[in-house]
Amino acid sequence: MSKDLEKVVEIAKGAGAILLDFYDRDYSTQEKDNNTPVTEADFAAEKYIKEELNKSFSYPILSEETVDNMDRLKSEYLWIVDPMDGTKDFISKSGEFTVVVGLARKSESILGVVYNPFSKQLFFAEKGGGAFFQERDGEIKPAHVSGTIDFSKATFLVSRSGLTSTRTVEILEELGVKDSVPVGSFAYKVGLIAIGKFDTYFSFGSLASEWDTCAPDIIIREAGGEMTDLYGDPLLYNQENVKREKGMVITNGALHQDLLSSLKPYIKA
Question: Is residue 201 within 8 Å of residue 158, measured between CB atoms?
């Protein structure tokens, strides 16, 4: 682990401790313009992450709960942060929320940390260095995706609302998928695919943004998997429009091209 990555792991765990401090007590909640919730805990974790990153690095920061500053477009490096991915799961106390800190160089994700403070699961990677996983402060182990090559034997992750989507159910039936599991936080889903526990996840629309995908992107790729949009193109970072408007497909790699082909008829022109 490089010193930079070691520092980011430390910061993510510190932010996780802040979230847990709020978890079982009363806290304020607001509704954002996109009709999603944000809590006092989100803001406290974000403040801590930004302060700690600024102590050690001079790169600008793009974070979900802060107004975007387009000066970031001039920078070669950019921190991309979601202080709490899975706020709804935090509120519902499912335990499936994460701290997400990624670093992009130009348009590529090159370093990422995803930490679930409730389960104490840590996923991290940096470009060319492999992906790793740590459970409850135990031994750090290499992360690697599954070798599943058949949809009928694959376990698909879905969002907690995904199982009620007619389109999602139709696609899974068409693919012959027998197992699907609802999981919260997008970054947590990707981490679980990166360690081979599950095989794939896809989404349509623009619900996600750069802060959701930057850290898990490098983690899944270094673990041997793939993350692209619905058209098979890589995800780009430090873009003027941070929304993932072309959806996402995350797999163990072996299933990727077949899944992209299978999803084509469902993509709205």
Answer: yes
First vs last C-alpha separation in the chain:
44
CATH code assigned at 119: 3.30.540.10
- Of 109, 142, 175, at which residue does a domain stop? 142
**155 lies in the same domain as 254:** yes
Q: What is the token pair recorded at 136?
A: 């409850």
For 258, the domain range is: 151-266
Distance CA 192, CA 189 (A): 5
If asked whether residues 123 and 167 sit together in one domain, one would say no
Residue 161: pLDDT band with limits 50, 70, 90: low
Instruction: Tell me, yes or no, whether 74 and 197 share the same domain.
Output: no
Long-range contacts of 31-35 (CB under 8 A, 24+ apart): none
Region for 120 from its dihedrals, namely left if φ exceeds 0, alpha if ψ lies in -120 to 50, beta otherwise: left
Q: Is 197 exposed, middle or buried (CB count within 10 Å of its CB: 0-12, 13-18, 19+)?
A: middle
Cβ-Cβ contacts under 8 Å for 223 (sequence gap 6 or more): 125, 130, 131, 143, 144, 145, 194, 195
Q: Kindly report, residue by residue over 68-120, the tens digit of the pLDDT.
A: 999 999 999 999 999 999 999 999 999 999 999 999 999 999 999 999 999 99
Task: Assess contact for 123 and 191: CB atoms under 8 A.
Answer: yes
Q: Output the six-digit token pair for 160.
A: 């907690």
SS3 249: strand
DSSP state of 253: S
How far does CA 89 lie from the centroid of its chain? 14
Domain match, 174 and 86 both:
no
Res 45: pLDDT: 98
Number of H helices, E strands in the chain: 7, 14
> Which residue type occupies 185?
S
